[in-house]
Amino acid sequence: MNEFLAKYLDHFRTALDSVTVTGSQSSYEAALTDLVAQLKKVQAAGGKVMMAGNGGSAAICSHQATDYWKNGNVRATAFNDSSLLTCISNDYSYEEVFSVPVKMFAEKGDLLFCISSSGSSRNILNAAEAGKTTGCRVVTFSGFDGDNPLRGAGDLNFHVKSHSYGAVEIIHLFIIHSILDAFLTTEGIDVFHRNKPLKS
User: Fold this and answer.
1) pLDDT of 125-168, one tens digit each?
2) Beta strands at 189-190 and 49-53: parallel, antiparallel or unpaired
3) Sign of the C-alpha dihedral, residues 96, 58, 62, 174?
4) What structural domains and CATH numbers belong to the chain?
5) Which of 57, 93, 122, 184 is the most buried (most CB within 10 A)?
6) What distance in Å separates the CA atoms of residue 184 and residue 73, rounded to the nearest whole number?
7) Phi, psi of 113 (to 5 degrees)
8) Radius of gyration of the chain (CA)
9) Residue 150 and residue 49: Cα distance in Å, rounded?
10) Predicted pLDDT at 200
11) C-alpha 146: how far from its chain's center?
């Protein structure tokens, strides 16, 4: 067990260090700064953040959409309602389960987070395409192969160089959480102490 734990922790550290960003920014710091500015614009305009993901990535979407509106005061939603999923899958197809609601609810200037560990889920790729056609700023989060199609589908693309679902999903959650926490810090919130106001 000690050997497994050491290997597991080492893999996670390596995967975290492997995160790369492509698109309109080429460094994690620049991308974080960019997205904080985008969140401020979305908030000021009364826009929203939409999140799409399957399975474990769907859980990330639900968790973070709630945090973004509850803690960040930024309108946010995830398209994970069971009636929505089964209705769109039945009436259209599962490949369109996120793109159809994106087309319905997206407004120009909104942010769309598309999350897929493999970067090859057709419904997530379709969501990214729908986001672009409706004028959203599309941000993708992927892992596994470096040439996965989702990695080139966004205005900003975060990639985790790992083939472990656990590492990729946890690091995606870390990145999305860090975007919100950086935003909260600029709003005068101390995210290291239970989101209390920073002392002046």
Assistant:
1) 999 999 999 999 999 999 999 999 999 999 999 999 999 999 99
2) unpaired
3) negative
4) 2-192 (3.40.50.10490)
5) 57
6) 10
7) -100, 120
8) 17
9) 18
10) 57
11) 18
The structure tokens listed for 5 are: 């734990």
**Which tokens belong to 182?**
């950086």
DSSP state of 153: S
CA–CA distances in Å: residue 101 to residues 59, 60, 66, 128, 169: 18, 18, 18, 12, 24
pLDDT tens digit string along 157-200?
A: 999 999 999 999 999 999 999 999 999 999 999 999 887 877 65
Q: What percent of the chain has pLDDT over 70?
A: 99
Distance CA(24)–CA(128), nearest Å, equals: 16
For residue 17, is pLDDT > 60? Answer: yes
> Tokens 């993901």 correspond to what residue?
53
Longest alpha-carbon distance in the chain? 55
Cβ proximity of 116 and 61 under 8 Å: no
| pTM metric for this prediction | 0.95
